[in-house]
Amino acid sequence: MADFDSTRFRHVLGHFPTGVTVVTSALQGDPYGITIGSFSSVSLDPPLVGFFPGRDSTSWPMMERSGAFCVNILSEHQGELCWRFAKEGDDKFKDVGWRPASSGSPVIDGVLSWIDCDIEKVVEAGDHFFVMGRVRELEVETDHGPMLFFRGKLGGFASP
After folding, report:
1. What are 75's strand-pairing partners?
2. 3-state class (DSSP) for residue 151
3. Residue 44: inside a domain, yes or no?
4. Which of 3-12, 72-81, 88-97, 104-113 has the lowest mean pLDDT?
5. Phi (first) and psi of residue 146, to 5 degrees
6. Element (H, E) at 65
7. CA distance linking residue 36 with residue 58, whole number of Å
8. Residue 15 pLDDT
9. Cα dihedral 118, 135, 130, 104 sign
10. In whole angstroms, what is the distance from residue 74 CA to residue 95 CA?
11. Of 64, 76, 61, 74, which is closest to residue 117 (Cα–Cα)?
12. DSSP 8-class letter at 54
């Protein structure tokens, strides 16, 4: 499609609300993390999840080398973390409390829940990679509401 309108594509897909996660890993004790909205359950048997980091991410190559990752599902009160981990560079973990999951990947304090995984497969997918992980452990941390991303903005969830 030579005349494909990527701006319109982004606008239309922005009308689909997504949850917000920070996917983390650690390599030789150094923590890495990126904000990811494109996260999904893949399979119950075996337990698999997936996410889509951008090909231009400078954090993803280090995370891939670690062989593991932890999906930190952000709560409605963690908007600052969303924007912090969405940027390249800087010390993203400065003043952020966390503890290592069994893989060594950071579990960020105050998240709604987390899923620790080993990398099962990485596939090129256009301007992103599809990363599939085999779940090794997971936990719900709080009963706060989820953070949602809709039409370019962060928000929460209101029950009807």
Report:
1. 146
2. coil
3. yes
4. 3-12
5. -80, 155
6. helix 60-66
7. 14
8. 81
9. negative
10. 17
11. 64
12. B
